[in-house]
Design brief:
The chain has a single domain, classed as Serine Threonine Protein Phosphatase 5, Tetratricopeptide repeat (Alpha Horseshoe). Helices cover about 70% and strands about 5% of the residues. The protein is built from 11 helices and 2 strands, in the order αββαααααααααα. Helix 1 runs antiparallel to helix 2, helix 4 runs antiparallel to helix 7 and helix 7 runs antiparallel to helix 8. The longest helix is centred in the N-terminal third of the chain and has 58 residues. The C terminus is likely disordered.
């Protein structure tokens, strides 16, 4: 009888020790995951801060009056887009000095966007990467970058209805994005929806640079049809007409003016 009791007690203790061991392993795993998540989020935040430093410096580059970019349309006729931007010499000097930082920040944000460990921060990273790519298309006029930018903005556009930006991200990007574009936002839409509308507009413009006017129209129509209260609707409607003129081989002079006319105005 005594032996049976002792055997039962030993068996119970063995089971208890196994349970304790299992709980210990689970706890250690949770601690490790928590540490990995924290490190991933910290890496993301460090790169957003680096992005803002680059955006601050970019913002200080003076504007220039305007340049013209010629794009051959489907009928072989050159059309002209007025491209207002930064002083090109100063911009090139800035980019030459900071190109590696832009690339490293873009790569780090892409890693966070695809990192399942960074729970809940992937959406923030996709947004910040979209902002970065928009600025890069103003710095680097290479049309392959325009294509990549469309893809990046498309990532945000496709999941915007499911995502919610963290308060930290909104505060960090307040100066270089939200304050800068707030007048383009509709009070009837959430910040996430307003960002989507702006990204649609920029995507459409990039399609125009690529001479893909039908795809540009699709983006503009998405703004007009889905977000009628957005301040960008009128711009979208006007650009739809511009795209149609491009597709017909006509220069939209009523929007951009003739080169010689603008040249006279700049003198």
């Amino acid at each position: 009888m005594t032996a049976s009791i002792e055997s039962y007690i030993n068996s119970a203790m063995s089971r208890k020790n196994i349970y304790i061991l299992i709980l210990l392993v689970i706890a250690l795993h949770m601690i490790a995951c928590s540490r990995d998540t924290s490190e991933s989020v910290n890496v993301f935040k460090d790169n957003v801060r680096r992005l803002n430093r680059l955006l601050d410096e970019y913002a200080n580059i003076p504007e220039k009056k305007g340049v013209y970019e010629q794009i051959p349309n489907e009928n072989g006729v050159a059309v002209i887009i007025l491209n207002l931007g930064k002083d090109r010499d100063k911009l090139n000097s800035f980019y030459k000095r900071t190109a590696k930082e832009w690339e490293a920040t873009d790569r780090a944000l892409e890693n966070t966007a695809s990192n399942q460990i960074a729970q809940g921060w992937q959406f923030d990273s996709i947004f910040c990467r979209g902002v970065l790519r928009i600025i890069l298309t103003e710095i680097d006029l290479n049309k392959s970058l325009a294509r990549r930018t469309i893809n990046t903005l498309g990532e945000y556009i496709n999941i915007s209805s499911e995502g919610k930006l963290h308060k930290w991200t909104k505060n960090e990007m307040k100066k270089n994005f939200f304050n800068k574009y707030r007048e383009l936002f509709s009070p009837d839409l959430s910040d996430e929806e307003n960002i989507k509308v702006y990204f649609l507009l920029i995507s459409a413009y990039q399609y125009m640079r690529l001479n893909e006017f039908k795809k540009a129209i699709i983006q503009y129509e998405a703004i007009v049809n889905s977000y009628p209260t957005s301040p960008l609707v009128d711009d979208a409607k006007a650009q739809i007409e511009v795209c149609k003129e491009f597709m017909e081989g006509r220069v939209p002079e009523h929007i951009y003016g003739k080169p010689e006319e603008n040249s006279e105005k700049e003198k």
